Amino acid sequence: xxxxxxDYEAWDHxxxxxxxxxxxxLRARKMMKGDLIANARTLRSEGVxxxxxFFAEVEYIPSWLNFDELQLGVDWATRNPVGFSLxxxxxxPWSYLDxxxxxxxxxxxxxxxxxxxxxxxxxxxxxFISTFDIExxxxxGHQWETWVRIRLMHTMVRIGLSRSGKWNSDGAPVSSLSLGxxxxxxxxxxxxxxxxxxxxxxxxxxxSWIRMWQWVARLQGxxxxxxxxxxxxxxxxxxxxxxxxxxxxSLSKSLVTANYKGLAETPGFALLPLSVHEAIGWNLLKLPxxxxxxxxxxxxxxxxxxxxxxxxxxxxxxxxxxxVQQIYRIPAVRRRGAAAGAKLITGFIxxxxxxxxxxxxxxxLTS
Length: 367
Description:
By secondary structure, the chain is mainly alpha-helical. The protein has helices at residues 8-11, 17-28, 36-45, 49-58, 71-78, 81-85, 91-95, 99-108, 117-129, 142-164, 176-180, 182-198, 203-219, 231-245, 250-263, 274-284, 288-294, 298-301, 310-324, 331-353. The chain has 20 helices and no strands.
């Protein structure tokens, strides 16, 4: 197949039929309380078709996925904790540039000024670092369950928005197409963000990183035809998806503003003033991976303040970090850096969560 063979616009009107059927059966049997995964497994053991079909998909391992090859991408990410954290300055704001996604975020209320933005940052980061546990990401593993719970959470948000009458956009909330966009946002673009402060990575490391986020996209219910074994084809498909989803509106702008303001108030990130966070964002939204899909004026379009002095200073700081990280060319340093980085990232997120682990079951539900 080629990228031209996919009807992308049609997928923008599709939610998650398998997840929605499962939630409908759980609700009909009054099994929405407690552990949804355990309850769904009970339905599967009873032969309920929705549960059987749902688990058949999330437990299926595509031919292009080799778990033994995923550690390279994890090690590359963990030895670059600064690049990992900058995803909140680039990849997360980019997700709001789809007006449909922005409407979902706004409806859940987590990004309002009176919301709980810092909590959301660390919960999102908790989801990301779950991918560091390769064994846990195998079907049935603890981290695999994390992503299945996130999928069911998205399903409940979609159902809640559809029933509330608050959904005003054409297309489905949390559509299959938007879930497919995760390969670009958290795969290709996150890799580019990390390279901005860490320098080039190897092709094997990059491929390993992308494969993980292809797997996550499939666990989230992204269309199978949009997730391909050929990474060249995948890149072409991602370009088509992003060209369709780049549709910023006034709500997108307000969420991007709230994002940077929230970062400046979040423990750890608050060490830097708002203007520096905005300057970092400006640089990241000007990376080729951003302008390729949104054009050269992405920061201007979304109303991100321009700081003429800080922007080049931040760019110089990134160049210095790239120079320092050349030390990872030494194998022994590279191994130790990955282990130390994993511990640093995990500890930072645990402190941010303040002893209360991320809740991927109910906290985004709408009435």
